[in-house]
Amino acid sequence: MAAVLPALARAAILPRRLRYAAPQAPALAVLVLLAAPPVALGEGPATLTDAASAALVVWCAVRLLRERARPLTGRAALILGAPVAGFAVAALAAAEADTALVGLCRHLQVFVLVPAAVMLTLRGPRDFRLLAWAVVALALAQGAIGVRQFLTRTGASYMGQDIRAVGTFGPQDVMGMATLVSYGIVVAVALALDPRPGRGQRGVALACAAALSVPLTLSFSRGAWIATALACGVMLLLSGVRRALAVLLALAAAGVVLVGGLGVGSQLVAERVGTIGRVTVAPDRSVTDRYALWDAALGIWREHPVTGVGPKGFPAHRDSHASVALSSGSDTGGAGEAFRREPLLSPHNMYLLVLSEQGLVGLTALAGSLAALLVLGLRGLRAAPRRGLDAGCGLAAVGLLVWQVLDFAYADIGGSATVMTAVVLGLAAWWALSDDRTRSGAAAR
Questions:
Q1: How far is residue 342's CA from residue 214's CA, in Å, rounded to a whole number?
Q2: CA 113, CA 152: separation in Å to the nearest integer?
Q3: pTM listed for this prediction
């Protein structure tokens, strides 16, 4: 009988925990779908993950209507709603109204609707941590697939070999797995640096971060490497300069032992790292194409400086502004896909993409919104000890936003992993824009 009572108590607790997590079910469904291969809805670019994100927005709207709650404070509405004005003005001024409308909907999904829904769905640090650990679990699942692809040579084509880790995203979205794994590392490092970690949390988080570093390396994504290293460095400094120096020294020693002493790391990885320092002296084809695309984006903006050419207008104006250095497309193949040449339809820089398609109006609104979230997030993190806020959640939110801001310098939205970007912006918005009672967990008690 003594052994039965604890089991019955645990069985009674489980339904209560499930009921508590129920409001997060739509957001968790988005993450679960990202663990599987993308499923297209019809012949358009929309996927099942996009449908799940739409369901999340509807779920949030219905809950707010039922509870008759005020959805956002004035400051939150201004910061999250600022990009709407830029997107709308650019869409109205576009020559191709149909194309611009599709682009407008996509931008509203990623930068406004889904982030606002995630923010309003989170009731406190407990909900935040649930989604944070779900991000880590998703990254581990995709990373495991990526490592297997490298070991079995069934990944995307890279340097003539099918070894590039891309997870379930395929060779057309080679940044998808790298993005998700980077999110997982940033979250895991933040939870490990939490000044008030739960029992065993720090060890588990460090183990997850170490495990995820392997698929990130095998993604051969230079941009993801740089953004992840810088975001983790920022979080280390925010958690204390003395701790940051100790961790950096430990990482340097581990790198010397693993790479120099034990010979861990392939020649391809070493060569890829070496190209980071040669992007201006002897750039490879991908870097040359990116420079040409950046020049094309700037050329488009110079002709349409205020409102740009409209959302999704870059491909139609690219060739008239691109130099002869731009190739006709990028070669993709492997990971179960036949070889084909993919057209270069964006400048691979979110800021230049917005500048060319939405002009100064759109870029000012979007960049201003991201900058405001970052400033408010840092301010809340600095005040966390004094106000009793959950600093672990703050570190994760700020780290994710720093990673995203850096990532936008060499990548833009596109592919099914873009929905994850919207979720990450929602996590950052929750920390930056929620009141102290919500960020401390008092409002959920």
A1: 28
A2: 40
A3: 0.89
